[in-house]
Design goal:
Blueprint lengths: L33 H31 L7 H37 L14 H6 L7 H16 L2
């Protein structure tokens, strides 16, 4: 995720709350107050915009690539690079879905609270991963269950 200034707003974005330059959510403020929500909304929108722009670049690069490569080794190298690039874009597609979900949670008033326990996820975790939907403890329990399910097959 890019480290753009929080006031570097996507084109056409109308903020719900004005944030001062350099604003960072603080534990001294009420959890998920309007400033917190606006901050995370902006971060998510910036992240989404960056992912979409990178995806467009990939498509342009793949379309402009010269298809007639005489050397088999060079052709294989390009196909490998293209495959890796497309897998990266698939991960971006999944991230975009999670970003959309997080933006909807902000709209619905659920953002910042664990889907499993309804506890506060915490500012530090959300700063590191704005798409987080569970507390660290709930996430660890979920991952353990997933591992047990896989091992039980």
């Amino acid at each position: 995720m890019s480290e753009r200034d929080i006031n570097d707003l996507p084109e056409g974005y109308i903020p719900e709350v004005e944030l001062p330059d350099g604003y960072v959510p603080s534990d001294k403020e009420e959890y998920m107050c309007p400033e917190h929500l606006e901050y995370f909304r902006r971060r998510l929108l910036q992240w989404r915009e960056d992912l979409v722009n990178e995806s467009k670049e990939t498509i342009n690069n793949l379309q402009q690539e010269v298809r007639d490569v005489g050397d088999e080794a060079e052709r294989a190298q390009r196909e490998t690079e293209n495959s890796l690039e497309l897998r990266t874009r698939d991960r971006y597609r999944k991230l975009l879905a999670k970003i959309r979900k997080a933006l909807n949670r902000i709209k619905d008033g659920d953002y910042g609270y664990c889907e499993e326990t309804d506890e506060e996820i915490g500012l530090k975790r959300l700063m590191a991963r704005p798409i987080a939907t569970m507390t660290v403890d709930a996430q660890e329990r979920w991952e353990l269950r997933q591992k047990q399910i896989k091992e039980g097959r």
